[in-house]
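#onboarding

Welcome to the new folks! Below is a worked example of what a typical request in this channel looks like: someone posts a single protein sequence, and someone else replies with the predicted structure as tokens. Don't worry about understanding the tokens yet, we'll cover that in week two.

Example request:
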Amino acid sequence: MKWLVTLIVIAGLLLAGCPQPSAPPMAETPEPPAVETPADGETVPPEQYDKTWISPPSVMVGNFYPGARAEYMISMHNGNDEPAEFSVTFKDPRNTSEGFVAAPPEAKDWVIIDDPAPTLAAKETRDVLIVVEMPEYAESPPKWEFWIVVKDVTQTGMVQTELACRCLVEMK
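Example response:
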């Protein structure tokens, strides 16, 4: 019995020291572009804060596969002088990038938006988590695209602006 316990302990120690196979690669997401911060005493150019914007304009999710999960952040900025309420939604693309097709209809169920109705204070910038989680049984084209659309719902008038982040997904 002691011999069996000793053998199990030694095998465990040997396995702990061996390199383990890595998990399948998760989807790659690029970092959003860095925003330069002013040096002490400098002021930020007003054009950077007086406009409503989102960043990044596009996200590439590579090596994706059924059962995978990818997470990325979208930064959004309220350039208004008043607080504004926004909506963050999944949208089928009006046109797709070269080599990509529109996401399959069930893809809207694979996209989770952490805060779909944020309210931002005047000149506030906030990150919203976007998760793409594809079920193990799902099927999709090799390259597909969807958009995450951000809209200031406090806008009035005939013309209302939507900002979109292209999400390009390449399957493994």
